[in-house]
Amino acid sequence: MFNSSSKIIDGIQHSKNLLHRVKTLASVSEDFNKRKPCIAVILVGENSASEIYVKNKIKTANNIGIKSIKISYPSSVLENDLLSQIKKLNDQNEVDGILVQLPLPNHISEEKIVLSIDPSKDVDGFHPINFGNLFLGNYTMLPCTPLGCLHLLKKELGSLSGLNAVIVGRSNIVGKPMQSLLLKENCTTIITHSKTINLSEFTLKADILISAIGKPKFIKKNHIKPGSVVIDVGINRIKLDNKNKIVGDVDFEDVIEKVKSITPVPGGVGPMTIACLMYNTVKASYLRNNNKFKEVIFDE
Ligand code: NDP
Questions:
Q1: Cα 184 to Cα 147: distance, rounded to the nearest angstrom
Q2: Which of 31, 45, 152, 160 could bridge across to 185 with cysteines, CB 3.0–4.6 Å?
Q3: CA nearest 118: which of 284, 290, 291?
Q4: Looking at the domain assignment, is residue 42 inside a domain?
Q5: What pLDDT does 24 receive?
């Protein structure tokens, strides 16, 4: 019988390994600065998925020696009140990272909120200054999910130079920054989207295939180049046999025999996103205090 376990890229284990290193960096930062690195997390409204994400982020921070401050608002909060709160956090020297959990209620402009965060504390890497730096190849704060994907790819493949990387999805938080990171790793990159005609014509060239579209089990074996590495970013909630289930964008069972390796959902990219948020928080604590920081996340 075919054994798929050897092909699984274990995001839980990789995230634990990374967090172990971040914990050491956090403790060195504490010695330097006489205080723990600190992240402030703002949660607006009662979105149950957001509440779970925030809870996991705070728990992880506390486990590895990062101080966390949670600030909750009802969904009726005024945009101006949120902006004043962010300004206060920007001005507090002991706060290294600020994260506003998205999505926000419709009456609040996400763009305005992201723009109001001090770029040196923008641990999500969404501020246009950090985004621009990424595209210039000057890495400041990098967005957590693409950073986590890159880390997994380097651990899996070593050097990525010369490989064909195809990204499905062109969002600002995953697809576009992912392409930029892979370009800097000397991949030949193609980015595809919902208007791409004949998607498989592109994906069949992919040594590395990254899917971030939000469509359950959309990627099938007819999209896959034999021996490729597949990173499934999608998190899709579906009902199967009357039970709630989370599946990725990739039809795992359909593609598994064809791939070299693949991230599962859950247990692949998701845990890496949180680990990278912690990495960014500790990195911010170093850089804001003029301490030298080695980007261990890019180690192979
Ligand atoms: P968006 O909805 O912002 O973007 C989806 C992208 O997929 C768009 O560019 C869209 O194209 C493209 N797309 C949609 N349908 C198709 C199709 N049939 N063929 C090709 N491209 C298509 O999503 P996000 O980037 O925010 O998230 C994507 C998925 O990743 C979601 O499931 C989300 O939950 C998950 N996610 C997981 C994270 C993690 O930590 N694991 C973190 C962030 C997201 P177009 O631009 O033309 O509309």
A1: 12
A2: 160
A3: 284
A4: yes
A5: 97
Query: Phi and psi (nearest 5°) for 164?
Result: -85, 120
Tell me the C-alpha to C-alpha distance, in Å, between residue 229 and each of 14, 259, 271: 16, 6, 18
- Residue count (the chain): 300
Within this chain, do residues 152 and 39 fall inside the same structural domain, yes or no? no
pLDDT in tens, 158-196: 999 999 999 999 999 999 999 999 999 999 999 999 999
Ligand 1 mean position, distance from CA 92 (Å): 35
| Residue whose CA lies nearest to ligand 1 atom number 19 | 194
User: Is 238 found in the same domain as 155?
Assistant: yes
Instruction: Specify whether 124 is catalytic.
Output: yes
Tens of pLDDT, residue by residue over 207-259, are 999 999 999 999 999 999 999 999 999 999 999 899 999 999 999 999 999 99
* pTM of the model as a whole: 0.97
Token pair for 112? 């305005």
Do 103 and 155 belong together in one domain? no
Judge if 109 and 161 occupy the same domain: no
Ligand 1 pocket by Cβ (under 6 Å): 145, 168-171, 173-175, 192-196, 199, 212-215, 233-236, 269-270, 273
- Predicted local confidence at residue 2, as pLDDT: 64
5, pLDDT greater than 90:
no
- For residue 12, with 0-12 CB atoms within 10 Å meaning exposed, 13-18 middle and 19 or more buried, which class applies? middle
